[in-house]
Amino acid sequence: MPLVCVCSPKGGVGKTTVAANLAYALARSGSKVLVVDFDTQNALRLHFGVPIADNRGFVAQSGTLSDWSQFILKVGPNLFVLPCGEVTEDERLQFEDNLMNEPMFIQRGLSAVLKIPDMVVIADMPPGRNAALKAMESVADMRIVVLLADTASLSLLPLVEQHKFMNKPRSHSIGEYYVVNQSDMRRTLSRDVTHFFEQRLRDKLLGTIHRDECVPEANASQRAIMDISPVSAAAFDVDHISKKVAVILGLSVGDGAYHHTASIYSS
């Protein structure tokens, strides 16, 4: 059961969009995918058609419940989401305290999921250094850092590489990789920053997602980029990145057919 953390050194880089569309792409290729929202903005659910008024989620009761799977929603063939849910400030602080001080907190809450063969778990993390990302260090197999093709991300790259925002991955983990988002080859600065990232990150760069009008349209429609515009540059980029992730994780890529999953999930 590979676990992938999607994170970023700062907000506003499209991290949640990348996590959601990576999940869509892997599920479409035949993998069973669960996306977990650890960001208390509770925005991940909106990428999967969950109504904005539906505030169900695991964080508020995560400290008292030994199994978070009852909050998982089925949102498509092979595809499931575990929303953060609406939380108060006290609930958020308690959740972070549990993450920091209970070594098996995540493993306990996701224990039912971890027993499902061949399930891929994608965790959408809060931006920057945070308790959730630190707690994930003991269980994550892969970390995907999302950056923008702009000067702000460029200036942060040395700090990211020196693990000033996030601790260095465990030596026996699969490792740390990068995605450059919203690259606009029509603009000189964006093009130059993208080329710098390509030269600097090399094999650690999973790919670049081009700036594309279909992306905000997909987000507004709460659907996958590839469903809104399957022949767009962004859809091609996400598909390419998902295939590289599948190879790195050793996933068996099928034809996208639905695979039966344990009955713990509800719609």
From TrEMBL:
Residues spanning the signal sequence: none
A Pfam family per the record: CBP_BcsQ
Concerning InterPro entries, the annotation shows:
Cellulose_synthase_operon_BcsQ (IPR017746), DNA_Partitioning_ATPase (IPR050678), P-loop_NTPase (IPR027417)
Lineage of producing organism? Bacteria, Pseudomonadati, Pseudomonadota, Gammaproteobacteria, Enterobacterales
The record's listing under Gene3D superfamilies reads:
P-loop containing nucleotide triphosphate hydrolases
Q: Which organism is it from?
A: Serratia oryzae
Q: Protein name, please?
A: Cellulose synthase operon protein YhjQ
